[in-house]
Amino acid sequence: MKYLLVLSVVLMPFISKATNGDQTLADEIEEFDATELIQHHIADSHDFHLFDYNGDSYSLPLPIILWTKNGLVTFMSSEFKHDEDASVVVEKNGQEFVRYHGNIYYADAFASKVEGEHFEAPSVMDFSQRPVNFSITKNVFSLILSVILIFVLFNAVAKSYKKNDGAPKGLTGFLEPLVIFVRDEIAIPNIGEKKHGKFMPYLLTVFFLIWVNNLFGLIPFFPFSANLTGNIAFTFTMATITFLITIFSGNKNYWGHIFNTPGVPLWLAPIMIPVEIMGMFTKPIALMIRLFANITAGHIIILSLVSLIFIFKSVFISPVSGAFVLFMSALEILVAALQAYVFTLLSALFIGQAVEEGHH
Amino acid sequence: MNFVAPESLIFWTTAIFIVFFFLLKKFAWKPILEAVKKREESITDALASAENAKREMANLKADNEKLLAAARAERDELLKEAREIKEKMIADAKNIAEAQGEKIIAQAKATIESEKAAAVADLRNQVSSISIEIAEKLLKEQLANKEAQSNLVEKMLEDIKLN
């Protein structure tokens, strides 16, 4: 109860400020749209939002790198002046760009747009309407940050062994058990004592990258808060890397299981081979969806609980909401580690299946 | 679902992941895993060598005891031998001394015998010379008168006749 009181007091100033900001931004009291808020928070962005002050939004501009019809174009995202509605046109290299709901398009695509009317935006995948985008987005920024952090930490750990030959202390004492956990609980049981060494660097990299980014996503302020591991493009890339490692390290036994499953009569091959090939792809797809869905779901739940306050338009709902957010945040910290573990474990399992020696 | 530039994130994730992977592999995972492995091996070795040392200590102790027992037995043997030698030496010395004594006694006896014989011979000589002197003197006195001289001659003549 005491905690709830403290929490409600702590949360109250944020609530008032947020409502003020919303009102000033829209210039009128608009219907609060939780879906839009949540979508906005879990999506990637070209700006890194820092804070709102007096109704103005302050954000860190990030570089925009576009591969257009006329070659490479770069500028800072601040040139869009926080516009997400295709109304600010940025002219670079003789070409005009607009930003609409986070994505950058050629201005021509919005030429027929009339202010105030509903406009069907071109498909994100239609590269005739928008340039290929290699921008350092909020998620890329977060990825770089996490990579630097992990590298600095583990490089320090690696160097500590040169000075200290005895029992691990300090940072090493904290991080070394995690490395040993990945080796003894993930790599060795799934890949085997003999072959695990080759895949250890990959599993360790994946484990710490996902874990650190899961945790970064839970910290609600700059320079964290990016929802990298809850972005399907990121999980797609990670799952693809696992998939490529699996098929490139697959031995005769692995391919034999796919194209000539032992113990299955030959006439079943037309059914078995497509099923097995499908199985090759469903594994990394499951990997991709699982991480994406778990992290996104966690973020959506927390944001929904916060939105409750605005939906009910009552400050008295904040203790309840706050308590649930606290509970969910604690749960999400567990999920952050758990999903990193599961992703690494399943990667190890798939690799283990690919390099397994036949025992028939 | 609103995708913001998915190709950007895919591109950067791939690029950063590959660079990051090789950097970490070289500067973090390899040294860490090697150090951990080395330490694990050294712990295993240390435990094994401690076990070995314990076994060696036990062996050494057993050896020591064996050596001690052997030394003790040797000492006893030596003592016994020494005692025997002592006894033998004493016995030998006794025998030699006895033999020597007997020899000395025999020699002394022989010396005494010879001395005695010499003394007897000397005595006999002296007695004879003294007897002759006495006889001379006696004769001188006895033959101072004529009658005694004629008696003697007669007597001597009788002795000759007997021969």
From TrEMBL, chain A:
Keywords, alphabetical: ATP synthesis, Cell membrane, CF(0), Hydrogen ion transport, Ion transport, Membrane, Signal, Transmembrane, Transmembrane helix, Transport
CDD domains: ATP-synt_Fo_a_6
Keyword Signal assigned: yes
Membrane topology field: Multi-pass membrane protein
Purpose: Key component of the proton channel; it plays a direct role in the translocation of protons across the membrane.
UniProt family annotation: Belongs to the ATPase A chain family.
Name of the protein in question: ATP synthase subunit a
Native source species: Myroides indicus
Encoding gene per record: atpB
From TrEMBL, chain B:
Taxonomic source organism: Myroides indicus
Entry's family note: Belongs to the ATPase B chain family.
Protein's name in the database: ATP synthase subunit b
Protein's UniProt keywords contain Methyltransferase: no
InterPro entries given in the database record: ATP_synth_B-like_membr_sf, ATP_synth_b/b'su_bac/chlpt, ATP_synth_F0_bsu_bac, ATP_synthase_B_chain
Membrane topology of this protein: Single-pass membrane protein
Transmembrane parts of this sequence: 6-24
GO molecular function: proton-transporting ATP synthase activity, rotational mechanism; proton-transporting ATPase activity, rotational mechanism
Keyword Plastid on entry: no
